[in-house]
Specification:
Blueprint lengths: L2 H12 L3 H10 L5 H12 L3 H13 L30
Length: 90
Amino acid sequence: MSFQAYLDNVEAKTGKTPNEFIAMAQAKNLTKYADIVAWLQKDFSLGLGHAKAIVHVILHGDTFELKHTTGTHRDESNTLRLDGIKNRVK
C-alpha cells in the first residue's frame, strides 16, 4: 500500500483529512511521537501503521523519501496530498 493510500484509508475511516489531524495536534500541543500515536489510537481507534502515517505528516509535513517507484507499494511522487480525497481532481 502506498503512503498516500494509508492517508486515504485513515480519512475514509475517520472522516478527517491529514490537514485536520495536523490542526488538531497543534491545538492539543502534541509534538512527541509517542503522545501523538497514543492520541490517534485512543480517540480515533487507528492501528499503529495508520497512526504512524498521520504522525509523519504532523511532524514532517507533506514530503517523504520516495523508496518505492514500482509495484503495489509505489507512490507517484514524494509529495503527499493532505487536503482530502474530495479535493482531488480526477
